[in-house]
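Minutes, project check-in

Agenda point 3 was the complex the collaborators sent over. CS summarized: two entities, 313 residues total, and the question is how they sit relative to each other. Sequences were read into the notes so everyone works from the same version.
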Amino acid sequence: MSDAAKLDAIDRALIVATQGGLPLVARPYQLIGEQVGVSGQEVMARLQAMLDAGIIRRIGAVPNHYAIGWTANGMTVWDVADERVDELGGYVGSLDFVTHCYRRPRALPDWPYNLFAMVHGSSRDEVRDKAARIAALLGEASRGGDILFSTRILKKAGLRI
Amino acid sequence: MPELDAVDRKIIDKLQGDFPLCDEPYAAAAVQLGVSGDELLERLQRLLDTRVLTRFGPLVHIERMGGAFVLAALQVPEERYDEVADLVNALPEVAHNYRREHALNMWFVLATETQGGIGAAIARIEEVTGLPVHAFPKEREYFVEMKLAARA
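CS then shared the predicted structure for the full assembly.
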């Protein structure tokens, strides 16, 4: 991202203070402000500014997908013709069951895939059905694909700076 | 899997974003859920304790603050799997890590505050595990919206 914003020391301190989570107290912004040395009002204003700038994507609950019933998770990967991948990546990303969609470099010869789309379901069959819909959308532009099912979360800590 | 009631599901579904920025945000958010602020706080604590939620708070887009976020994978011999998982997970730069069914059987995300941090983290993982790291930096992001409704 070329438009990286400059964060000052207070913004950075706010990110560090909240990366483990927002305090579970009635007035969390006030408490964070006391830790960082600014008012609760300033904490709120700075969090809002970082939301507006896209530095903070959102504030809220981050569920463990397995625990809320999305027990099957497949990273679907596709070998899509270079000249079509940006157009088709946009379509795949707009499918309502795709939670992330990226173009990434191939690692030939073992890894021919350049389009990654994360798919969640309550069963592997559901994920396979959704992957089949992606395959249909890609059509002949895809020379092949695979589904890498996850079998265990080894770590899910989120960002730590 | 922990039991979730209707209020828990509502919390999970309604509070994945747009958490209020006001003096008493839990009380404000609780109104739309039909519970008191205190009950919301108790339920959030329980959902975190039982790992239904992994976090509650801001989600930072590290690239927007000059950092980097890279997906990477290892091909780990089965007999070394747990040992290598511990070595990889010990790095604070590893934000999450999943076991997947493929020859490349360990997939993790490295998040660092500087661009140069990624190379250093990869070198460190290769050093401590003795295995080559396959990095898949994103070339383009088509969509990211990590919100899923509770189905349980």
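Noted in discussion: The CA atoms of residues 64 and 156 of chain A lie 9 Å apart.
Follow-up: revisit at the next meeting once the mutant set is ready.
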